[in-house]
Structures are given as structure tokens and as C-alpha cells.
# Entry
Amino acid sequence: MAVVDVYNLQNEKTAQVDLKEEIFHVAVKSHILHQVVVSQLVDRRTGSARAKGRSEVKASGSKLWRQKGTGRARVGAASSPTRRGGGVAFGPVPRKFHKKVPKKVRRAALRMALTDKLQNDRLVVIDDFDFPEIKTGHFVEAMRNFEVRKALIVVEDKNENLEKSSRNVPWVKVLRHEGLNVYDILNHDHLFLAQSAIGKIEEALVP
# Structure
């Protein structure tokens, strides 16, 4: 078991919590992290680029001039890709940029990302993100107590005061435990875990 300190929003130590070693103390393999991050970023692409081919362009289907006798090059329809206003040859069409990664690999990558944050002292456990009201100033003040920038906060359930107080702070992102992912963990300098969310995360990532 890995033992870490638990803090309140004033950055005061209040307790300690045990973290399962099979989740927070595993071998970190960069190629697996890379594979999962690339998969996440690829899945964000819409693949909606679209161009009309020669059969889809609105143009007359008649031959522009006769085949022989004009002294000009022979030509067919006005929708030819070689003519202005014609269709695009081999243009883009809607497609899916999906890269499938096995579920076991995704879970393993999550364990590695959590381990990386713990080993580099970038993981902070908070006893409770209890804000009495929706106020951005109170949230920013609490974050300044920890002297962090670009932080990811993971909570157990919906926390309206926290989510609305932080939504205008560009360097902070709040997730519920079921939305935890490798890219966001690695993309933020610090990871804040609500103590109540640790059990849910460990339950989901047990090998």
C-alpha cells in the first residue's frame, strides 16, 4: 500500500489514505501511454471534409464542342476535374479516424498515468471540495493555496458549486471519476483527487 497525505482546501494536512499499489505503483511504459493518447486525439477528429466529384457537380452533360474539326483539344463534360468549376479528382470524403485500443490496454495506461503523477509528487488528495457557494474567486483562492497551475480535479459525483466556480478558470479542468482519461492526466501538471473518488477509481481499474 502507498500511503499519501490528505489535505483540505487550505492546504492543511488532515489525514492519510492508502492507495492500492497495483494501481498507483506500476511500471510506466511510455509506448503504451503514447498509443492510448494518440487513440484519444484521433477519435476527436470529425473527418467531415468533403469535396464534390465530377459526377456530383451541377453542369451540362452535353459535349462542349464537336470532337474534330475545331483545332482545339477534344473535351467532354464541363464537370471534368481539368476545367474550372469542375469536380475534384480524388477529393476528401467523410471518414472515421478511429484507432481501436483494447480495453485492457486503456486501463493499464490509466494506471501508469496515475503512477506517474504519484511518483513525481504531482498527485494531491483533497478531503472534500465543499464550496458554500458558486464563486470563482473562492475557487481560485483555494487553488492558490497549493501554488499549482494547470490542474485536473477528479471528484466522485456531480458537484455543482465546484463545476460552476471553476468553469471560467482556463487552467483547471474538473472531471467526474467515470470520465478520467490518460490524455487529461498527462496534459495537466497536477492531479487533484477527491478522497471519496479514490475508491471508485480503484474499483474500476483493478487488474
Remarks:
- The CA atoms of residues 11 and 126 lie 9 Å apart.
- The longest strand covers residues 13-19.
